[in-house]
Specification:
This protein has about 300 residues and is mainly alpha-helical. The protein has helices at about 10-15, 20-30, 45-60, 65-75, 80-110, 115-125, 130-145, 150-160, 170-180, 185-205, 210-230, 235-250, 260-270, 275-285, 295-310, and strands spanning about 5-10, 35, 45. The chain folds into 3 domains: about 5-75, Multidrug-efflux Transporter Regulator, Chain: A, Domain 2; about 90-185, no CATH class; about 210-310, no CATH class. It is built from 15 helices and 3 strands. The radius of gyration is 34 Å and the shape is rod-shaped.
Length: about 300
């Protein structure tokens, strides 16, 4: 081999930016051995060794371990396979870092105590399945063992909150608040009462499921009344109540009389818990949905109007 085409270890270090010590280490480990020795016993390297060493430097800069580097150089695995595996690993690391950043920002925003910070950190580092378990346990505890509205149970499970990898501080805060809410015994007891009421209604023959159209009709009509400043006990309110009770009668197959108004009022009172609205608002925030309006004023107005005209 022409010695003029060989590089000394010092020249190799200058070319690659690696230290002489590091190059010797790679040679001793058999990763990039010297091409040959000079008559004086110094290590010499050819252009192929230079290329191998530059590849090693690049792979190590990407935090790829020596065992994998050795397999790449030996042709036991391809660069594409190694790159794909490490890209996936980096995605996980990036997700963790983003969540940590969101946690720190959330802590700063709400001036959290050390206990809250620890709780937030532990919650966001759970797997998606472990996080969903909090809500599944809540649903199992509040709806389990009773023949509640299956459509409602399915709605709760199908809208399971999913904390995104690039969660904002607001989403982290919402996640923490949601976990506290679903573990609150008072809230669980209130939802359990709703489930038992639904079961009793189903036992009486109500198997009509969810009523999105009916609920939307109430929101639209009462919303317009609120915007217009119509009082629940006014003559204008009487017409709105009459139109809405007719919708309820048609939906549920009941007579449109005073007993229907009392039944509707009973349903509204059972469902009247602001924590339910809070639950759905938190789920919307975590899942990145559009903000959900507070429908409390709508159904409060409807309830007062029903009481005003309940026996008419």
């Amino acid at each position: 081999m022409d010695d003029e085409n060989l590089l000394t270890i010092g020249t190799l270090a200058a070319r690659t930016g690696l230290s002489v010590k590091t190059i010797r280490f790679y040679a001793d480990k058999g990763i990039v051995p010297a091409t040959c020795l000079s008559p004086a016993g110094y290590r010499l390297y050819d252009v192929a060794a230079l290329a191998r060493l530059e590849l090693v430097r690049t792979l190590r800069a990407l935090d790829i371990d020596l065992a994998t580097v050795r397999r790449v150089l030996a042709g036991e695995t391809s660069l594409a396979e190694v790159a794909a595996a490490h890209a996936a690993a980096l995605d996980v690391q990036i997700r963790v870092l983003r969540l940590r950043r969101a946690v720190l920002a959330a802590v700063a925003n709400r001036e959290s105590t050390p206990r809250e910070m620890d709780l937030m950190h532990r919650l966001v580092n759970l797997s998606d399945a472990e996080r969903r378990r909090f809500v599944h346990d809540f649903v199992d505890d509040t709806f389990g063992g009773v023949d509640a509205n299956p459509a409602m149970v399915e709605l709760l499970r199908s809208t399971m909150p999913e904390l995104p990898g690039d969660a904002t501080p607001e989403q982290v805060e919402a996640w923490m608040d949601l976990v506290e809410l679903v573990q609150d015994t008072g809230f669980r007891a209130a939802v359990r009462r709703m489930a038992e009421y639904q079961a009793a209604q189903r036992a009486d023959g109500d198997t009509t499921g969810l009523h999105h159209d009916l609920t939307e009709t109430v929101r639209e009509n009462v919303g317009r009344a609120l915007d217009a400043g119509i009082a629940p006990g006014s003559e204008e309110a009487a017409g709105i109540v009459a139109a809405l009770t007719a919708c309820y009668a048609e939906t549920f197959g009941k007579a449109d009389d005073s007993r229907l108004k009392e039944w509707i009022l009973e349903r509204l009172e059972v469902a009247d818990d602001p924590r339910v609205t809070r639950y759905w608002q938190l789920v919307a925030t975590i899942n990145g949905w559009p903000p959900l309006p507070d429908q409390g004023p709508v159904f409060s107005w409807f309830g007062r109007a029903l009481r005003a005209f309940g026996r008419q």
